[in-house]
Structures are given as C-alpha cells and as structure tokens.
Amino acid sequence: MTTIYRDSDADLGALAGETVAVVGYGNQGRSQALNLRDSGLEVVVGNRGDAARDRAREDGFDVHSIADACRRADVAMLLIPDEIMPEVYREEVAPGLEDGNVVCLASGYNVAFGLLDPAPELDCVMLAPRIIGLGVRDRYVEGTGFPSFVGVHHDATGRARDRLLALARGVGSTRAGCIEMSMHDEASLDLFNEQGFGPAFGRVLLSAIELLVERGFPPEAVLMEIFLSGEFAYSLEKAREVGFLRQMDFHSRTSQYGSITRGARYLDLDPALKERMGAVLDEIRSGRFAAEWSAQQESAGATLDAVRAARDRMPFAQWERSARGAFGLDEEAEGGG
C-alpha cells in the first residue's frame, strides 16, 4: 500500500534547535532555502563563489563555502547536480558532518546506483520535489504546496523520518502530499520519464508534424494546432485537476467521438512500445545507464554540443523558429525572463 504523508504527519519541532545547510543556490536551492526560512527554520547557504552565492547574500542568508556551511549545520541538503555530487560530497560535505547529522538528497540517483554512500552513522534521507525549482517557491507562496517523493535510506538516530517530514513541511510539500519511496525506485521512475516516456512521446509528436507538413499543411499552422496555441498544455493541466479521462468532457462531442473511435487503431502499437520502453527501464534499474553516464563525463560536453548543433539543423527547428516569430512568441519569452 502506498504511504502518503501530509501536514498532519509532519512536525517542524523535529528540527528545533537545528541548523539546515542548503548546499547549492540554483533554482531548487534558492526556492527551498526561502521556503524553509519562511517556515521558521534556521538556514545557512553553502555555495561556491559565483553569482548564485552573491544572490544568496542579497536574499539575506548567512552564506559560506560548502565545507563551512556543513560544519555549522545539523542538516545538509544537497541541491547540486547529480554528476558532481559524489566529488563535492567526498571533498567538501562529508568532512564537516558529525554522527547523527542529516544528509538530505533531492534525488535518489547517486545512492541508488552506488555512486554515493553516506556513513551509516548519519541519517540519510531523500526529499525529491516533483516540480521545477521556480514552482517550489510559487506553490509555497500560493499556499498550495507541491508533491514530492520522500524516503529514508539510513536511520542512525531513530528520528530520520521525523526530521525528513519536518523538512518536507518546511519547504511546503506536505501540503500537497509526499509519497514514500526507496531511492532506487525514485531514481528509476525519474530516469524512465526522461528516457522512456519522453522520447516516445516526442517521436509521436514529431512524426505527426512531419506527416502534416509533407501533406501540404503550412508548418506555422501545424505547430499552432498541435502545441503552440497552448491548448494541449491547458488540456494536460485539466487532466491534472480532474483526471486524464474526465478531461475529455471539456472537449466537443466531435472531438470525443473521433478520439475514441480512431484511438483504437493505435492499440496494436502497444507491444512494440512496451518492449522498447521496457528495455530502457531495464537499463536504468540494473545500473547500466548510471555506469554509462559516469564513463561519459569527460566527453559529455562535446557530445551534447554536437547533438544541440544537429538539433538546430533539423527542418522542425526552422519551422518552429518561423512559427514562433510569426506570432511574436520569442519576444514574449524574452520579455518574461
């Protein structure tokens, strides 16, 4: 049975007298630090000397190097990229921790695949928001909160879950609900969404666009119909609010009839899709993807640059630039920051 924690399960008093070090002041770090402070917790920020560190000072935080922040704190929340976390933890975080301190990760990735193993004398927990950093702050300010996956990996003190739920309440997540998961399951789900569902969905979208352009429809009209108008995004938001199936009731009867009757024509794609996505999931859960990604770190930058360059030469890229330009969407994005 799935365990879901809410405000009534969490007590900020579990962190009474303790200091939280937010390590990394990017989008997630800044939002979580602000939320924790607004919830009445004692927060310091640890960040390397860059613009983010300056911004933390401007926001009124007590800012230190990562090592100094962890020495001053009872709880270290690691909000830095997965690929640099093991080295930063080993060299700058771990030396400042004492038995009974808390290490809180925003993703189960490094622990799940053996890249990071905090000492068993520490409480090691996971608080993984299911929303981007800006949303973490916006939803807190609105009072609605946001869902997270949470889990306890080490419970050295007997208080790990209580301290974890206090952190979750402090950032505003127990308002919406926190689902208990292992670090391995959280990381596997997250990676599958990025590597299994996302590419499969993207391939369907691009195939539909290419077909329509090949059949003579103007690219600008095709992109506007499929996603640029915002109708599709609005439908997904309604699916979140009332349910994926029930949101169909907001569409015309013509739309509903066509979707139901023609949708059946794609059922024979299920076995092939599940087979390919299943292979991706197996690579993730076995740790093969994590090992591959770790081995690619030295060449990752060049590889990603080459992929981006190739992406920008795709016909779709030109169609999108044309459509966005025609409707002033690029200017709107720039103006919105």
What is the H level of CATH, i.e. the homologous superfamily of the largest domain?
NAD(P)-binding Rossmann-like Domain
Order of helices and strands: EEHEHEHEHEHEHEHEHHHHHHHHH
- How many domains in all? 2
- Trace the largest sheet across and list its strands: 1-9-8-7-6-5-2-3-4
Enumerate how many helices there are, as a single number.
16
Q: Helical percent range?
A: 55-70%
- By helix and strand content, what is the structural category? alpha/beta
Strand content: 5-15%
User: C-alpha Rg, in Å?
Assistant: 23 Å
For this structure, what is the CATH class of the largest domain? Alpha Beta
Q: At CATH's second level, what is the architecture of the largest domain?
A: 3-Layer(aba) Sandwich
N-end to C-end Cα span: 43 Å
Number of strands: 9
Q: Sheet with the most strands?
A: 9 strands, mixed
Low-confidence stretches: none
**CATH fold-level label of the largest domain:** Rossmann fold
Query: What integer is the average pLDDT?
Result: 94
CA-based shape = globular
Short synopsis of the structure:
The protein has 16 helices and 9 strands. With 337 residues, it is an alpha/beta fold. The longest helix has 32 residues, at 183-214.
